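Journal club side-thread
Mid-discussion, someone asked how the predicted structure for our own chain would compare to the paper's figures. Pasting it here so we can look after the session.
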Amino acid sequence: MEAPLILRFDDNRLLAALYGEHDQNLLRLEQHLGVTLSSRGNQIAIAGAPDRMQVAERVLQALYRCLEQGRDVGDAEVDDAVRLIQESEEGLEGVSALHNDDLVLRTKKRHVAPRSPRQAHFIKAMQRNELVFGIGPAGTGKTYLAVASAVTAMMSGQVDRIILSRPAVEAGERLGFLPGDMKDKVDPYLRPLYDALHDMLPAEQVTKRLETGEIEIAPLAFMRGRTLSNAFIILDEAQNTTPVQMKMALTRLGENSRMAVTGDLTQVDLPRGTPSGLRNATDLLAGLPGISFVQFTEGDVVRHPLVTRIVRAYDRQEREEREADLFERR
């Protein structure tokens, strides 16, 4: 049996945070990698298969470096470090790079840091370009990071207001007549944007800014004819726009404004035969100056690990169906 690998750390003050409450971080790492971790003083002994011990060593070193940089370490950070070190060539440097101060989005309620290299790329793109497309599966943080970037830009005075919009397309269901005024009718479609806002700002601030118009949440249909200046605009669920709607939305950009467009091309809810405006824009606008496209994959899913497995299963099924369709055409 392979001899245990011994890790030693210099700063005892950081070890409690590294281990987690009741050694929760070590237990989570054991579950991920199938290793056994034993702590004594400033030492951790790692036992298990040689390749798994090496991954555990690199994860612990990366998490310790995050603590040295003043970052918190919890379940999410452990998960991210394991994923990044197992799947990325960047390894330790990649984990550290995710916690670069320039990429941390500071809002009233929390500081939001990227949890994968593509999330970091998405944040950089929104900082540097007027128009950014974030495309990929559910759970990759596209909408959440866009809202965090918008709130950060408003709080720092870069923009005066935030405008959040979605096309009002039902996801495979017929909701029928909804009672109430216009706000009551459209709120169900826009609830994920409200949820993200409440993660970034105290509830009273969200309410106040909605009342003053500093934050506006509206269906895409309400955007026609407007010019949106000094604003951070987010068009979410953009796969459910038509090409005409997408053109209308993109041409709303006014002076000192920027826009993030997010969507998942595998979850188009438009009527059969209706082309997606997001797919059309991806083909039409690629390579234009001032526009950036960030393509997320299932490897960037930062929800429950089961979500990653679900996304991969559906992707595999779609690939098999496309291949079968091509074979039949031949």
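Post-session note: The first helix runs from residue 15 to 19.
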